[in-house]
Amino acid sequence: MISITSEGTETLPEKKPISILRALQIPGVWEFSLCLFFSKAVYYTFFFWLPVYIKETTDVVNHIAADLSAVFDAGGIIGGILAGAVSDATGGSATVCGFMFILAMPCLYCMVEYIGHGVAVLIALLVITGLFVNGPYALITTAVSTDLGTRPSLVKNTHALATVVAIIDGMGSLGSAVGPLIAGLLSQYDWHAVFYFLIASQAVGLLCLTRLIYREVRLWLNEFRSRRERTALRFRGKVPPNLRQKSDSFLNTSSRIA
After folding, report:
1. Does the pTM exceed 0.85?
2. pLDDT (tens digit, 9 = 90+) per residue, 57-74?
3. Which segments within the chain are labelled E, that is strand?
4. How far separated are the first and last CA of the chain, in Å rounded?
5. How far apart are CA 115 and CA 167, in angstroms?
6. pLDDT band for position 242 (50/70/90)?
7. Within a 10 A sphere around the Cβ of 236, how many other Cβ atoms?
């Protein structure tokens, strides 16, 4: 309903913001929130502890270790751009994140096993690991708000959208605090334990997205089947009736044989 003020101008009624409980009931909010929690935990562990890890496991000096740690962020820039481009092309942000989670786990294992094989190997590992670690983090914090904005319960409701994005980003901020804390405690014993913790975080983040990945893959399969059926119907419309009858009888015979 539109109200008219005393000055003669029209004002639209304000939409009331949804409650936090109602926002948590929107499909995808819990999954993306937990996924961002573990994704930020891994990223900020690298952000705070990577120079220390390089200094303690290699022969480089402090300023060289700090410079090498910046290579990880360079790989993260590439990963964010790549994740966004693939997500736009396929329409499956959850599947893109899950695929990067899977590829990040062996990269993290190689980071702890092959750290002492020279600077060139270290730079390559940092670029590749940064690409797959930062890709989901960048994609969730940017594209998820757009994905949620297309849902019927959030269309043209900026108050609801802000609440949902705040919940997701708040969970991510919590992960950015918990991850480095646990890594600092584990680093007192062994760096292998730190990277096993990071690998486990990636695995749990992947599990959080399984339902959304399944939904996206099922949607792709349905679109593929419908496209194939439309192509078949279009082809049948161009075939002469006598050839179409022969084709149908051949398909029926083949189906009975199968």
Report:
1. no
2. 888 888 888 888 889 999
3. 3-4, 10-11
4. 62
5. 37
6. low
7. 11
**Which residues, 6 or more positions from 112, have their beta carbon under 8 angstroms from its beta carbon?**
191, 192, 194, 195
The Cα 180–Cα 50 span in angstroms is 11
Spatial CA neighbour of 50 closest among 65, 30, 33? 65
Q: Six-digit token pair at 158?
A: 């900026």
pLDDT band at 156 (very low <50, low <70, confident <90, very high): low
- Alpha carbon distance 15, 163 (integer Å): 13
- Give the closest residue to 194 by CA, choosing from 35, 39, 46, 59: 46
Within 8 A by CB and 6+ apart from 77, the residues are 134
Q: Largest Cα–Cα distance in the chain?
A: 82
Tokens (6 digits) for 171: 């969970």
